[in-house]
Amino acid sequence: MRQKPPHPLPGNTPGSAAVPETVVPETVVPEPGETAGQRNRRLAHIGVAHAQRVLTGRYRLASQQEAFELLRQTSQQFNIKLHTLADAVLHTAAPDTGAELWFPRRARYSPPPLPNLAVDEASRTNHGVVLRNAMRRVLHITETTMGNVQLSEQGMLRMEKHTGLNQEFTEFFAFVRGSTTSCAQSAAQRQQITVKDVAVADVFDDESRHVILQTGSRAAHSVPLIGRNDRVMGIISSHHEQPLTDFTRAQLAALEAVGTQVGHWLLWHRHTIVLDALEQLHAAAIAQSVRGVQPD
User: Fold this and answer.
1) Can you tell me the distance from the alpha carbon of 65 to that of 71, in angstroms, rounded to the nearest whole number?
2) What DSSP element (H or E) covers 153?
3) What does pLDDT average to in each consecutive run of 10 residues of the chain (296 residues)?
4) CA atoms within 13 A on the CB side of 277
5) Rounded distance, CA 147 to CA 138, Å?
6) How far apart are CA 38 and CA 171, in angstroms?
7) Beta bridge pairs of residue 39
8) Helix or strand or coil: residue 152?
9) Contact 220, 237 (CB under 8 A)
10) Which pLDDT value is given to residue 45?
């Protein structure tokens, strides 16, 4: 496998137009009478449901349930979250009509190095292990035990991992869109954001402030995970029981290094493992379609 970092998601041929099939996310604010948990289930279903419709039409499958089973089986085979695979279906240019391969000229690359994250050789391609160890590294640098990882998906930040935070917090911030949180500002500005005292910081609206304070956090620091071309792949945030003073230059430099390393790794994962999964999904969907039109 090549060592050079991957470039943006490929089209199917050198001259093909990469016009992804997108989905506009619904509001992340609960609808009237809707709990945070109900909102999260609704938002979690949006991308998967749209991907089912896309696959059903593209491969002329018998039903959207068939499309769901293809997504589910492929996500399990490649150890990728179902919503991540669905998001890739929606945001990657469709395969050429009648093409046996979705990405016939794609080059594959080795995962980038992850120094100081304590990721062993067997886990270098494991999404969950890398995110967990990256969060641990950030919390070690910032000297706290509370934190979370969010990934960019469908125009939102989606909670992927967390530790030391209660259910009210994780449900409320399961999906974040807008500018009333430090993580959202960190993603928008592509830089680290420190909130020294949540109780008085202007960045939060009243509801967000209440949810953060009730979990025991008085301060927060957000680190963007930045891939090539300044693409924000996600955010790791630390939470602190007491108001913060400034971090040292050494701490900020170490956090920036984590953000860059993990951002590049996430982009590699998206361009390698996720595209491997899409290629398998394409082959399985073609086979399913062919079986569906076989005469009895």
Assistant:
1) 10
2) strand 146-153
3) 45 38 44 76 87 96 96 96 94 94 92 93 94 98 98 89 97 84 91 96 90 97 93 96 96 98 96 96 93 54
4) 26
5) 8
6) 10
7) none
8) strand
9) yes
10) 86
Asked whether 239 and 231 are in contact (CB, 8 A), the reply is no
Q: Give dist(CA 12, CA 106) in Å, integer.
A: 9
| Pairing mode, strands 175-176 and 232-240 | unpaired
Place of tokens 């035990």: 145
Contacts of 193-202 with CB under 8 Å at 24 or more apart are: 193/221, 193/222, 194/219, 194/220, 194/221, 194/244, 194/246, 194/247, 195/219, 195/220, 195/221, 195/244, 196/243, 196/244, 196/245, 197/243, 197/244, 199/243
> Which residue in this structure is represented by tokens 């419709």?
53
Note the Cα 169 to chain centre separation in Å. Answer: 19
Encode burial over 132-156: b for 16+ CB neighbours within 10 A, e otherwise.
Answer: bbbbbbbbebbebebbbbbbbbbeb
CA-based end-to-end distance of the chain: 44
In 3D space, the residue among 227, 232, 209, 228 whose CA is nearest the CA of residue 219 turns out to be 209
Count CB neighbours of 61 within 10 A.
20
Q: Which two tokens stand for residue 213?
A: 């304070």
Between CA 173 and CA 111 the distance in angstroms is 30
* Residue 209 in tokens: 């402030």
